[in-house]
Amino acid sequence: MANEGLRDNETLSSLKNESETLKCKLEEERAKLHDVEPFLSVFFFQQDGKVIVWDAFTTNKEHAVTMPCTWVMACAYAPSGCAIACGGLDNKCSVYPLTFDKNENMAAKKKSVAMHTNYLSACSFTNSDMQILTSSGDGTCALWDVESGQLLQSFHGHAADVLCLDLAPSETGNTFVSGGCDKKAMVWDLRSGQCIQSFETHDSDINSVRYYPSGDAFASASDDATCRLYDLRADREVAIYSKESIIFGASSVDFSLSGRLLFTGYNDYTINVWDVLKGTRVSILFGHENRVSTLRVSPDGTAFCSGSWDHTLRVAVGHQRTRPPAKFIFHSGPERPPQFIKSSATAIIHADSPC
Amino acid sequence: MSGTVCSSGAVTQAQRAVEQLRLEAATERIKISKAATELMLYCQENCRQDPLLSGVPASANPFKDKKTCILL
């Protein structure tokens, strides 16, 4: 009968009503704590740091490792630096042990770890080489054991493709944030699979999410041409980084080491640098000849790297509005997520996608 | 009957949505004044160690132009 599964006094319409009421209540509760405009009334003047542009050539040897798999959309370095994970339209995430021995065939040692029912959009190792977190076009995220390939936990809640994820900095615990085509950013508990918080203020797909270095907030970049900052303890959006002149989608976002600067890549080929606290744009970087699809700041904070549809990865040290941007190194092929290991210029990996 | 199956699915979905919303409504929140201040404090504490903010001295910059060697 139609009433199977319903408890007393519940009907579909009463559940929908309760749903609506709870949503309103949620907004009210959040608004009650909105006692100040974030940063505007509490901000006090502090000395601005100087930012410098270096005209630069790299002097370090770059190790570029090409993934021997087709249509890669995501890649990640293992924390030890001994393995790489990647995947894409093959719906899988595979792990390759890294070797610098030219005689060894990396593809032969490939291990398939994750299996989704749609494309793999992002992957990341957790604090060890043993577990991988993946997000997929099938609308779910999943945690896998690398050795056995076993699914340890799955995360359901997004109503559309999940495009990105980021793990909380290890000191702050076992959570991660994901962003999707349903315009929602969701924060999950790794162990229980439960969605802890969700944020739906963007007007379009969320392409990239990144935690603030302290782990108390995260930023998101969206096709609605804005980037936003969400504070996890206040449970709401606290800043929006946008300009009327910016009309193209933002594809990628990352913080500088102190969290003061936000680097964002856009589909209009530029990189904008924002002052996180003031909400103003500090700098705009040109140089790419096509969409900037991905961007990462190095772990030691000395440089950042951007990848683009113009088939290049570019590394910049510092930024400044008036002087021309730093000279760049070029790699052939790629556009998908670069990652640094350990220090800024020692290694960048990229994924080759055949055209 | 297909009508029954459809409404059971919709009911389960609605139940799940309501449960999730109840959970989220019950989370503890702090005031923005406090949250924003803490974000700012974190920035201030770490801004000196931030190379992209304070710049890198020329000697430490791995990307700087190499000067050509002039043989006299």
Describe the structure.
The complex is a heterodimer of chains A (355) and B (72). By secondary structure, chain A is mostly beta strands. Chain A is 6% helix and 36% strand. Chain A has one helix at 12-32; strands at residues 72-77, 83-88, 92-97, 111-115, 120-125, 131-136, 140-145, 151-156, 162-167, 175-180, 185-189, 195-199, 206-211, 217-222, 227-231, 236-241, 250-255, 261-266, 271-275, 281-285, 292-297, 304-308, 313-316. Chain A is globular. In chain A, 46% of the residues are buried. Residues 37-68 and 320-355 of chain A have low confidence and may be disordered. Chain B is elongated, with a radius of gyration of 29 Å.
Write the layout of secondary structure elements.
The complex is a heterodimer of chains A (355) and B (72).
Chain A: H1 12-32, E1 72-77, E2 83-88, E3 92-97, E4 111-115, E5 120-125, E6 131-136, E7 140-145, E8 151-156, E9 162-167, E10 175-180, E11 185-189, E12 195-199, E13 206-211, E14 217-222, E15 227-231, E16 236-241, E17 250-255, E18 261-266, E19 271-275, E20 281-285, E21 292-297, E22 304-308, E23 313-316
Antiparallel strand pairs in A: 1-2, 2-3, 3-4, 5-6, 6-7, 7-8, 9-10, 10-11, 11-12, 13-14, 14-15, 15-16, 17-18, 18-19, 19-20, 21-22, 22-23
Chain B: H1 2-25, H2 32-46, H3 51-54
